[in-house]
Amino acid sequence: MKVLVTGSAGQLGRALQTSAPPACEVTAVDRAELDLADAAAVGAFVHGLKPDLLVNAAAYTAVDKAESEEALAHAVNADAVAAMAEALRATGGRLVQVSTDFVFDGSSPRAYRPDDARNPLSAYGRTKAAGEDAAGPDALIVRTAWVHAAGGANFVRTMLRLMAERESLRVVADQIGAPTWAGGLAATIWGLVAKDARGIFHHTDAGTASWYDFAVAIQEEALALGLLARAVPVIPIATADYPTPATRPAFSLLDCSATRAALGDGYTHWRTHLRAMLKEELALG
Question: Where exactly are the transmembrane stretches of this chain (predicted)?
Answer without folding.
Answer: none
